[in-house]
Amino acid sequence: MHSHQFAHWPFADAHNTASFSTTKVVREHLPVLMVSHDADGAWQFLDATTDEPGEALLVCMGCIYERDQSLEQIADLPLGWSAWRQEVGGTWERAENPPEDDDEDDGHAV
Ligand SMILES: [Zn+2]
């Protein structure tokens, strides 16, 4: 457990809240280009380089924001919404996540 000190913290969640990210963002420092604020309140900060889920990592939100403070622009993303951008500094687009199926069938149509 660690903490951050920010002069300005835009998120409603505490900065040591765990969020989901990817190995590419955390280890290779790829930019976050896709953000999801899940209906259950969890944040996902993803590199959007692939549709493959890959290895998810838990990262504190402060560590993500420390690296890229332009994420402030999506700090008010409602529950159940996603946002994405083409590049760092680009305009965020937002959309409500499609409703999740009740069953756990994760079959991908080809
Ligand atoms: Zn941190």
Description:
This is DUF2185 domain-containing protein. This protein is α+β, with helices and mostly antiparallel strands. The chain has a domain at 18-88. It is built from 2 helices and 6 strands. A 6-stranded mixed sheet has the order 4-1-3-2-5-6. Strand 5 and strand 6 form a beta hairpin. The longest helix has 7 residues, at 61-67. It is globular. 16% of the residues are buried. The chain binds zinc ion. The site of zinc ion (ZN) has 5 residues, from helix 2.
Mean pLDDT: 89
Q: Which residue ranges are poorly predicted, with pLDDT under 50 across at least 5 consecutive positions?
A: none
| Count of DSSP H/I helices | 2
Instruction: Output the structural class.
Output: alpha+beta
The helix/strand series, from N terminus to C terminus, equals EHEEEHEE
Beta-strand level of the residues, as a percent range? 15-25%
The molecules bound to the chains, other than polymers, are:
zinc ion
Shape: globular
Region (Disordered): 90-110
Protein name: DUF2185 domain-containing protein
Biased composition (Acidic residues): 98-110
List keywords for this structure.
11% helix; 6-stranded mixed beta sheet; 2 helices; binds zinc ion; DUF2185 domain-containing protein; 110 residues; alpha+beta
What is the topology?
Blueprint: E1 18-22, H1 23-27, E2 34-37, E3 43-46, E4 56-60, H2 61-67, E5 81-84, E6 93-96
Zinc ion binds next to helix 2.
